[in-house]
Amino acid sequence: MSDALVTARDLTVRFVSRDATVHAVNGVDFDLAPREVLCILGESGSGKSVTLRSLMRLNPEARTRMSGTLMVDGHDVMAAGEAEMAELRGSVVSMIFQEPMTALDPVFTIGQQIAETIIRHEHLSHTAAQRRALELLELVQIPSAKRRLAAYPHELSGGLRQRAMIAIALSCRPKLLLADEPTTALDATVQIQILLLLRRLQQEMGMGVIFVTHDLGVAGEIADRVAVMYAGRFIEEGPVGALMRAPLHPYAQGLLGATVHAGLRGTRLTTIPGAPPNLERLPTGCAFAPRCAYAEDLCLAALPAARSPVAGRAARCVRVQDAA
Amino acid sequence: MTDSEAVADLPPPVDLGGPAQPLLTVRGLTKHFPFKGGMLGRTAGVVQAVDDVSFELRKGETLGIVGESGCGKSTTSRLIMSLILPSAGEVLFDGQLVGPGGMALKDYRRQVQMVFQDSYSSLNPRLTIQESIAFAPTVHGLNPLAARGRAQDLLQAVGLNPTQFARRYPHELSGGQRQRVNIARALALRPRLIILDEPVSALDKSVEAQVLNLLSDLKTQFGLTYLFISHDLNVVQYMSDRVLVMYLGRIAEIGPVDQIYDTPAHPYTAALLASRPSMDPDHRREHAPLTGDPPNPVNPPSGCRFRTRCSFAEPVCAQTVPELAPLDRGQAAACLMVNDPRHSRHLEFSPGSGAHPKKHTAPIKQAAQARGAA
Description:
The complex is a heterodimer of chains A (324) and B (374).
Chain A: E1 6-16, E2 21-32, E3 37-41, H1 48-54, E4 64-72, E5 75-76, H2 82-91, E6 93-96, H3 100-103, H4 110-122, H5 126-139, H6 145-148, H7 158-169, E7 176-180, H8 188-205, E8 208-213, H9 216-222, E9 225-230, E10 233-239, H10 240-245, H11 250-258, H12 297-301, E11 314-315
Parallel strand pairs in A: 3-8, 3-9, 6-7, 7-8
Antiparallel strand pairs in A: 1-2, 1-4, 4-5, 9-10, 10-11
Helix pairs in contact in A: 4-5, 4-7, 5-7, 7-8
Chain B: E1 24-37, E2 42-57, E3 62-66, H1 73-80, E4 88-93, E5 96-97, H2 105-111, E6 112-115, H3 129-139, H4 144-157, H5 162-165, H6 175-187, E7 193-197, H7 205-222, E8 225-229, H8 233-239, E9 242-247, E10 250-256, H9 257-262, H10 267-274, H11 315-319, E11 325-326, E12 332-333, H12 343-346, H13 361-373
Parallel strand pairs in B: 3-8, 3-9, 6-7, 7-8
Antiparallel strand pairs in B: 1-2, 1-4, 4-5, 9-10, 10-12, 11-12
Helix pairs in contact in B: 3-4, 3-6, 4-6, 6-7
């Protein structure tokens, strides 16, 4: 698919140190269409944030070994030089993080931080950049935006800081927005505001979004498609509704079953026994097999290929029947 | 205490008041934190973290406390534990006043234990987990051999194999395993009440489910009473018999879990419930029920603290502090407008699955009329 905004083929990311090699991402394939919202769902250590960061090549350079194909808006992220990456970051692809207090610079005002990006990429004058910064704060619905331009991050509440970070990310109208758990640190009543804001901005600006979360409910509110990650692989991928109603992979089934939601009161929660594998010594077969109730010899012999029972859905499990 | 004085088993706690006596009674609990500021370092203001909180915890029940950050739920738990001293108010345990003039803290803390959110910082990194669990029983006079034996029994009870885990240090365990150790340590003195302060918030979903199942099992096995604090409305609904909703240091609403979730009477409770993601991609939330963040507890709004974000606040809400008024079937809400005819309209939030009020108007109105007639 040449018109995809993002194309990843056999994306592999390893972190190498003297003592050990951590296999964080182990062969991820996906396409993201323009204006599409993909949610990567997984538990801590599943490689979801590393996948996201590799799209902007933000993983620590000295220790990171990347391989495979990774194209973002026609640019080859694997081959690009540092200067080309700096040009891409902010203008074509930008990112919002979980903790705005550490992502924002504490010694510059919100206005300065937004203007900096605009001046760097679009070579506007300082006054024009300030004017755009004001528009952006209004776009992300920060009340009394003019006054907030001169505010430092610590003077804002958590919700406003997250809005300010979104304003910086959107300042050069990127085609792709990467979101790394942007609502996890927020209170419930603020989280829903930020989710609705992101959804509206995505539609208005026609961005592609890759949204990393561990929260099924968040995925249900914002995703078009969902990919479930386990031990550095996409073990299941599909449209959000179908995947949340009837997951195919035993791990995805376990994850959905273990999530507490209304109506479970008085019943016993289903759990997944055991713990995720050590990413320093990855098993040869299916990484979930040691915890899987349905595991058979076939699972341990070799990594199951992605099988697609219906168009648009796929799971790496030997129990799933391929349609073809 | 020397080893010769140490006993082989601690006497079990005695139920003084019988089943009708609440296990815990909290009356007018208030905590104001003064803070310094300005060039001269004078007291510049007061954070009203907890303000006039009163409730009862019945024997054998699980009371959930929910609220957003800064609402005072963790301060409340620390006040109950006597880890910090209240500015005003008192705590009664099984009918006895806790603290000077009443029950000694050492006796009280044998019966009330706590599990914290951060499983790593709440364990001593230099003690093996067996030593951590056996520590408190030894302080209370159990001989070291018996204490070690109890630690191993408790590790077994929380699903950790003692031969495999007893000699490990906290850093050698995963987050879920450490939280199991914290639960075992809380059980070591055979307490009657356990305060669980966000016990699963730092855990992954699959581990969260394991720990919640464990907590349910232990409650039955040891006949415990839980005070379960969380910001996760789904987890609180799953675990609790009754729910207490806090906003900016005060109780907004309290009642049986099904009533609170089906027919919330306080506009804040309704908004909080309607803020939950819908879990149904075909019926996504269209509107956020509230705008903005919770205000700063340093200078909370006058009158009703929720009025600045409440969509149907009236002038009277700025002048009068609403008292917690009883409604139907054990539910109580601190809202002045609870018997206003427009109230019901305001509690209708956008559709989604599961989380919102629909048929709640009748009991509230009846209760309001009943109070009006009285």
